[in-house]
Design brief:
Catalyzes the reduction of 1-pyrroline-5-carboxylate (PCA) to L-proline. It is found in: Cytoplasm. Pathway: Amino-acid biosynthesis; L-proline biosynthesis; L-proline from L-glutamate 5-semialdehyde: step 1/1. It catalyses: L-proline + NAD(+) = (S)-1-pyrroline-5-carboxylate + NADH + 2 H(+); L-proline + NADP(+) = (S)-1-pyrroline-5-carboxylate + NADPH + 2 H(+). The protein has 268 residues and is an alpha/beta fold. The protein folds into two domains: 156 residues, Rossmann fold (3-Layer(aba) Sandwich); 92 residues, ProC C-terminal domain-like (ProC C-terminal domain-like fold), CATH 1.10.3730. It has an eight-stranded mixed beta sheet with strand order 3-2-1-4-5-6-7-8, with helices on both faces. The chain starts with a strand and ends with a helix. The chain is elongated, with a radius of gyration of 21 Å.
């Protein structure tokens, strides 16, 4: 089996470890790095995976999954570069950071795959987009697809599209949570208890997502099926359009894309 090290065992890093274990990977083939000793003890007790230092991970792992914050990347690459195992695959989960950054700082020829996951990885329902760097081969992409397939769905995209992916699916769960929060507040405004409003909206969101995934219908078709002439739904849709909700979403996602690009430029 391939030996995998997750560098940075925050929520996403831990979710990946958990998914790999559920997917049949042995604890002997997994390791992680984490700066806080208490967190190391906690994860080892919970999952049975050993904590190691960054140099030890770099020297022994076949695949290094980098799951640190973008602002922490340069010190980490400085640790990796002198001791990186020849032929090791580097998989970046860092928002906004291009593969050329890793290729510049790591030994010549290091294969790098850029990934944009999202937080539903925590429940095994991630949407991850992957892109090959200059030295990554088809077998590297297949390996990454296998790893991430244990925690959700995977899509290949050109790296030029990764900033848009970051804005759309990477940040996307937050937009849905924001909308659900507002709808629950609306239920309270209309006189419903918070718990009742939350149950109504959360299950409606789950059902609507399932319909989108399973029916193959365009969202407009599904929306129109709920929208009767002169009914309640069309009155609500009119208000959403009048208040510019569609335009606000477009602007918000553009702003997220711009920030992703900015993070990448900061390391040029």
């Amino acid at each position: 089996m391939t030996t995998i090290a997750v560098l940075g065992a925050g929520k996403i890093g831990e979710a990946l470890l958990s998914g790999l274990l559920h997917g049949g990977w042995s604890t002997a083939d997994l390791m992680f790095t984490e700066r806080y000793p208490q967190r190391c003890e906690e994860l080892t007790a919970r999952h049975g995976v050993r904590a190691v230092s960054v140099p030890d991970a770099a020297a022994t792992a076949d695949v290094l999954v980098v799951a640190v914050k973008p602002q922490d990347i340069e010190p980490l690459l400085g640790e990796l570069s002198p001791v990186l195992k020849p032929g090791a695959l580097v998989v970046s989960l860092c928002a906004g950071l291009p593969t050329k950054l890793f290729e510049r700082e790591l030994p010549e020829g290091t294969p790098v795959v850029r990934v944009m996951p999202n937080t539903p990885m925590l429940v095994g329902e991630a949407m991850s987009a992957i892109s090959a760097g200059a030295h990554a081969r088809p077998e590297h992409l297949e390996l990454v697809e296998g790893l991430l397939g244990s925690v959700g769905k995977v899509l290949r995209v050109p790296e030029s599209q990764q900033d848009a992916v970051t804005a759309l699916s990477g940040s996307g769960p937050a937009y849905f949570f924001f909308l659900v929060e507002a709808m629950i507040d609306a239920g309270i405004l209309l006189g419903l208890p918070r718990a009742v409003a939350a149950q109504l909206i959360i299950q409606s969101a789950v059902g609507a997502a399932t319909m989108l995934a399973d029916s193959g219908e365009h969202p407009v078709t599904l929306r129109e099926a709920v929208t009767s002439p002169a009914g309640t739904t069309i009155m609500a849709v009119r208000e959403l359009e009048r208040h510019g909700v569609r335009a606000a979403l477009l602007a918000a996602i553009e702003a997220a894309r711009d920030r992703s690009e900015e993070l990448g430029r900061a390391h040029d």
